[in-house]
Design brief:
This protein has a 16-stranded antiparallel barrel with strand order 1-4-5-6-7-8-9-10-11-12-13-14-15-16-17-18. About 5% of the residues lie in helices and about 40% in strands. The two termini are about 25 Å apart. The chain is mainly β. The protein contains three helices and 18 strands.
Amino acid sequence: MQKSTIFIYLAFAVIFLAIGSPARAQEGMQYFRPNDKSGINVFETTKSDTTPFTKMKVKVGGNFEQSFQTLRDQNTAVPMTQAGYTGNVNSLIPLINGFDLAMANLNVDAQLADGIRVDLSVYLASRHHEDAWVKGGYVQMDKLTFLHSSLIDKIMKSITIKVGQFDVDYGDEHFRRTDGGNTIYNPFVENYIMDEFATEIGGEIYYHNKSGIFAMAGITNGELDPTVVAPVKIDSATKQVNKYSPALHGKLGFDKQLNNAFRLRLSGSFYTDHSANSNTLFGGDRTGSHYYNVMENQNVANGTTLSDANDYSPFSGRYNPGFSEEVNTYMINLFLKFHGLEFFGTYENAEGRTITETSQRQATQYAADLIYRFTAARENFWIGARYNSVTAAMQGYSPDITINREVGSIGWFVTKNILAKAEYVNQVYQNYASTNILNGGKFDGMVFEASIGF
């Protein structure tokens, strides 16, 4: 979405604020995930109708985070020069202890009518973009009372409709990830190695059953940046001019609090796009990694021309398989919570290719989080551990590469809006070519982070 459109959205926000009651502008959101501690372990919004609608209301919120990093890295790649750059492009940037760039988000939600809510999110500052940037906006409809149909009112007791540009509901990890200044939902500092996050234009329809079973079907344009320009590139696999087909995704699962102590959630989801202009399911984050400058090269940074970004390589520590033309992927997630003990597990299998490839490559990802929250009454402290592993086939290279990450974390909710956390991370790169900067790569160290969400 063009950054200039921020002025239009902010103008609407001002209008909403003028209409809404100042005393109650922060209250009254229906079917809504809170931006504070109470939003933890909330996935898709439920059909619990606990907030009565009286009139239009607006909630303006934000997220801010600041981190301090003590990471160190190393590699064994052979020295190399590269056209367009000076010096050894396989040497690593020397790192010191210090503060990272702070990130901030602006969140505007408007309850327009009974069961109809609008969400607008803006990145005010981030590692990937130096300017304010609209993340996306959508309308969510849990009631359609304006149709004045008792039959539709009955159907909508189990249905949710979302339309706009939104975070594609593929997998469950995107509900737990850090998103720029919003770190409230994540018990760790960073996201998965292979980070599944993209905002695309489309719609999703959800079915909720009182038994705990839920289902979703969605269709999007398959692009972060939409276009109306006719394609001209030739697809190497089909030998035809590229076609921008819609992307389809879906989810089926079970989520229920079985008793006062135990909650079980199991879900399976998929995403498929057979022809795209530039699909970014694994590279759609416009904020960047929260591990700064690890496994990066200063010579390449010096020779890179930046455009609307303040970091030449904003995704340090992550792996993007580069499935820009075609992607077919599925994910299985298991979430268990017994008293203060939580387990969140992920298995992901992705296949895809670029427009210059004739066959698909594969990437698999495993992850397991174990979190213990205490005290029993408030759960405002936690200790946690994560293991995350990715194995993938790289374009034009054999054998498969592997990246393993181990993380330990501790955290404290000072209040429901103020969070402090610290983690130790150890990440190792395996099977990279000797000419690749990640050959023999490793980084480890501590990262401390404080954040606010409201």
